[in-house]
Amino acid sequence: MNGPWYEEGPSALWAPYCQMKTAPAPLPVVATRGCRITLADGRELIDGVASWWSACHGYNHPHILDRVQAQLSVMPHVMFGGLVHEPASVLARRLLAIAPGAMSRVFFSDSGSTAVEVALKIALQYHKNLGRSGRDRFVCFSDGYHGDTLGAMSVSDPEASMHRAFRDVVTKHLVVDLPRDSQAVRSLDAFLGANAGRIAGMIIEPLVQGAGGMRFHSAETLAAVRELASRHGILFIADEIATGFWRTGSRFACDQAAVVPDLLCLGKALTGGVIGMGATLATDAVFQAFLSDDPELALMHGPTFMANPLACAAANASLDLFETEPRAGQVSAIEATLREGLAECRRLPGVVDVRVKGAIGVVQLEPGIDVRAMRPRFIERGVWARPFKDIIYLTPSFVISQDELDRLTRAAREVVAGT
Question: Is residue 337 located within the same domain as residue 228?
Fold first, then answer.
């Protein structure tokens, strides 16, 4: 290389979520700290989305870095097949202690998407192990999104998600609308009753559907859907990869509806955004269906980097911070600021809705507005944000300062006003 790495002409990288022929060049980043991203040209951007809402404690939190560094010097990785180590054992016990209801076991993987894959696989085999043939479909919801791997794509909205190109390839599941009133609940009840014999599970993003458009639903809707799953003997899978760890205002979104899932998927903020990791938690009733003298009933799944000790160390440190630093209060304060700071957008042309839930703020725009063209306008104002579909959204780190948060909401108001 003759010059800086970012000046070497066409990149060897394949970038995510963009048409690389027409997309603007990505911004070269050289450092992160707190809620700031430092670019190669010296500019600093306030991160309004916390690296896809994973860096909940901010970047480079010293406690997480210290724990990862200590683990790195002892054992960065060891296979988990036939072996076990303290960081994973401790982390599993801690997750079960804070999970909704009586979860019993934790299966670690390497991302949120693979945590969903594991949950789907468990649900399918659960019924097979109990001798229930034909239960090979899932109920999923319009505007839902659960990841980019094949199984996760199959339970995302086949039309409204970014995976339309694969709708004729993935397994076709049962996509329904979230029931938002008593009549819709009765209709879903009848639908499940007519199809229960072929349904293995139902998967939902509790309270907030993320990449499907940051769409909210009530705790009452969540509780009703869970009750229907129980009534019809369908495993209930809560995908809390984006909503878990206080993002919606409670430790888990399920807590707001007093809902206990059969399977719970975690990721993103699990490690404080430091390293990739997924976890799938199961109740004891689910786990017991796999215990047998018959090896054919075992769950045959095991990612190479399952329970990676560095990831476990980061996750344990992240849980430490949730226990010792005032995250609940910080999220409550962020929610209040987002409500106040984004409220003015309601009066701006092109705005359809403004909604806030926990540390999530959303400005929804009229169809046809090019929200991707807004991204450079945020950068001009010293803010990193990634509007998509018809929304501008803010999901900042929980440690963001009041001044930084005010700058985020002001940038959102100014960018929307300029459309």
Answer: no
Residue type at 325 in one-letter notation: E
User: What's the rounded Cα separation, in Å, for the pair 128 and 285?
Assistant: 14
**What pTM does this model have?**
0.97
**CATH number reported for the structural domain that contains residue 18 in this entry:** 3.90.1150.10
Residues 336, 278 share a domain: no
Q: For residues 135 and 276, state if they share a domain.
A: yes
162, two tokens: 């970014």
**Statement to judge: residues 282 and 306 lie in one domain:** yes
Give mean pLDDT, residues 116-129.
98
Contacts of 409 (CB under 8 A, 6+ apart): 337, 338, 340, 341, 342, 361, 394
Full DSSP string of 374-408: GHHHHHHTTEE---BTTEEEE---TT--HHHHHHH
* Residue 11: predicted pLDDT: 75
- Number of domains the chain contains: 2
The parent domain of residue 372 ranges over: 5-57+327-417
What CATH number has the domain bearing residue 132? Answer: 3.40.640.10
Binning pLDDT at 50, 70 and 90, where does residue 301 land? very high
So what's the pLDDT on residue 9? 57
Helix (H) or strand (E) holding 47: strand 44-47
Which residues are catalytically annotated? 17, 145, 239, 268
Residue with tokens 């399920």: 254
N- to C-terminal Cα distance for the chain? 41
pLDDT in tens, 8-57: 755 789 999 999 999 999 999 999 999 999 999 999 999 999 999 999 99
Residue with tokens 């980043």: 29
The pLDDT value recorded for residue 132 is 96
Whether residue 348 sits in one domain with residue 230: no
Predicted confidence at residue 294, as pLDDT, reads 97
